Predict the structure.
Amino acid sequence: MTAQSGQPAPRRFERSRGLIDENARFTAGGVNSHFRTGMAEGPLVFSHGDGARLIDADGNTLIDYYCGMGATILGHTPPEVIAAARAQVEKGILFAGQTEIEIAAARLLCDRIPCAERVRFGCSGSEVMQAALRVARAATGRRMILKCEGHYHGWMDNVLWSTAPALNAAGPSDAPVPVAGSAGQSDAQSAEIAVIGWNDLAALEARLAAGNIAAVIMEPAMCNQGAIAPEPGYLEGVREACTRTGTLLVFDEVITGFRLDRRGAQSLFGVTPDLAIFAKAIANGFPVAALCGRADLMDLLARGGVMHGGTFNAQPVSMAAMMATQTTLTPELFNTACTRGLRLQDGVRKALDRAGLQAVVAGFPLVFHVAFGRDAPARDYRDIAASDRSGYTRFAHALLRRGVRALERGAWFVSTAHDDATIDETIAIVEEAARETAAP
């Protein structure tokens, strides 16, 4: 507590900074993912998690709305998942063969996901997206892939285009140009990628009319940048245009899967893709990803000469964690978490309004986005890119100093471990942080 205010002292992060500096002698940048740099107070080092909270190297307890970048839908220490993983470890870790647990996991997804007639497991969303593209090109005999500006489909050279482009390099809004996402990225890969704006059905239909697109890849709701719902009729129009032109529709449900609906966003919106990829919340943080889709397409991996491999695919411990995650996430638990997520959104919205901060809070119960400087919900990447990012960053820093960890890009992930008391505590902290952010 501070001596004068009676309020908890602001969190300090000196030991995290020292450990990152020390680790940078051995690990490039002191981190093992590009997306862990540039965060509030610098990359943090954590000692452990407990439910909806993280405890860092400085001893700070933080209410966590990163949720492992969306993966920990049951929180950091769900007993059912921990018990299932521990039990499988005692049976063995990796067999270079099949297990009954992976058969049960595949059956579960085929029963639950609308498009899933067959499944193949991998370890990351980036990886299984590559399998999806390979299947699409083999099935159609075409090479070109069409993606939406602002959507992220992994860090590989062939898809890391226009994920967060600077607007002065992105071309006109009605005809975006592919912008590489990394130094050292192969320029040659741009020859097989085309970019359009999200929620622009006319642009998609015009591009597909050429008849040379193997697959359209998109998030069914744009959650990598913002938390933007498809406009009425958009996904239905995309589905019809793909069917009409012999183009495969691939949904990237790495974020939306099991957050927008237990059966995927494709179930929520009533539009079934040809292929879909899942990861993150599928196993509550264990490295599991899945490619799901039509049997005739997926069977190209078995009898059509399309190669997909991986030593750690369907690793038994991760499969056990996936089964425990999916069976624990009952409709009742999911709906309760959604109710709390909506209450949190409403509390954030009202707190910002009371502080006189112009912002839009929009999205879905278990993943929403806060955009400063806007007076209407965003409909595409360019709307998000034009928001007041520096203002929101100040807000995120004010939250962190008070014990709430929210992504600086504006996304908030909610887990089933965020109980009513945690939501109440968060809203109270948001009120304080909003007043600080609004102060001159």
Summary: Residues 1-6 have pLDDT under 50 and may be disordered. The longest strand covers residues 213-218.
